[in-house]
Amino acid sequence: xxxxxxAAFEAAKEKREALKTKKRIAELxxxxxxxxxxxxKAYAKTTLKNPESDNLFDINAKQATNMVGKPxxxxxxxxxxxxxxAELLAQTESLTxxxxxxxxxxxxxERHSGFPVTNKExxxxxxxxxxxxxxxxxxxxxxxxxxxxxxxxYAEYLKAPNTPRGKHAYxxxxxxxxxxxxxxxxxxxxxxxxxxxxxWLPFLCEAIKHQxxxxxPKTKIIKVPITLLxxxxxxxxxxxxxxxxxxxxxxxxxxxxxxxxEYFIKTGTYSSKYDFRNCYVHGAEEVKExxxxxxxxxxxxxxxxxxxxxxxxxGASTTNEWVVREFIPDKENAPTIYKGMPLHTEYRVFVxxxxxxxxxxxxxxxxxxxxxxxxxxxxxxxxxxxxxYIIFRMYEDTLMARYKENVDKVKKHxxxxxxxxxxxxxxxxxxxxxxxxxxxxxxxxxxxxxxVECVPKNLLKPAKENWIPGKPMNNKEKVAFMxxxxxxxxxxxxxxxxxxxxxxxxx
Length: 507
Prior knowledge:
- The chain is of the alpha+beta class.
- Among the domains are: 2-57; 340-466, 2-Layer Sandwich (D-amino Acid Aminotransferase, Chain A, domain 1), CATH 3.30.470.
- The protein has 16 helices and 15 strands.
- The strands form four sheets. A six-stranded antiparallel β-sheet has the order 2-1-5-8-6-7, sandwiched between helices. Strands 4-14-13-11-12 form a five-stranded mixed β-sheet.
- α1 (2-31) crosses α2 and α6 (147-159) runs antiparallel to α16 (475-499).
- The mean pLDDT is 88.
């Protein structure tokens, strides 16, 4: 036992010494520009170009893409790809928002003509080239529709929301939304997530129009067709090159991509910015593969909800939206963390949309949180965390000085916008400063947001959830409504099967 205590003491001593060394390096880099440049060069050369990992969450989207072979595609397959892309585009809705708050909405084009690609055509191709989706066919694991299990769990939760049984049912409901095969009902439920950008961005745009201080990055959101979104529920490594090619070509057209531009990409709820290589797209080759990156990011986020994930996290990508934004070039020559992300001063502002008040504001890069993450967690001695600890420690004073200089200004201008925000409930609003420019870059329900502790407890209200389309209902009404829906859908499915007209057939 004594030997064990001595070993533990020695390990703790070594950790303290390592932390002191990191602090000394940070102090040196503050004042020595040449040393900072050499430090960053060494990191980029030796660590950022690290070999691919066996851990899914250590692999970035560009590494994942390189793992898939790219065989030559013949003329017949090219024709099928083009037809499938056309089918998907005809189903795609989009919203494009501009920096000044103006936005455009494009609805799905139901006038699409042409012959849908059939299973017979797909099966005529070599197995390794077969697409795993069309406009109305998709790859699934289970024959039974998922919505039945999901809605039953939700109904169970609503009957007794504050009991252990009810809380368990809610967790199963949320997990089901993230990991089960999609069907039209489940797809619509996922689309109810208020944290997804397509819900709040139009409201933000309308508020932005009434002021001149904040901008938003030019943003295009698409509602991903169900058969394409289903691919996020499939093992990424098992997708065929043809399937990935379809996703790439679809995104090229759906987002009107320009190979000469730089983009920031995310799902409706998740950017994967903690590995900045996932979300920053630049260069003609990367722009060409942008669809694959979005697919992988979404797949990766959904794996957080897998029973095999420790800890299991639901909700990171409960969305049916993909997003491409203009990339905002760094004006400050800021150092980077998270494998390439410029470390800008950011502000998390908590607001009550009902009372039109700012109820809290805090530095997004909270020094205590960041130094603990990089310097004191289990992976603190890894190359990436060591780099980010040193960089954050070196740059902390600059970040905090800028925050203190501008926090009152940011709060004042948010307050001026609130009368024009027609959202309900309490929200977090993220503001990024880049030089003298201030961008609103993200929003989320307050109770789902980190740093909510800065809001006085007497002001904080729980978010009202509703995962059922239609008018507001109490829990008893929701359960009755769901039972009616389930019965109607079951009857409808029976009729479809009898008539041989299933909407979603399997590949």
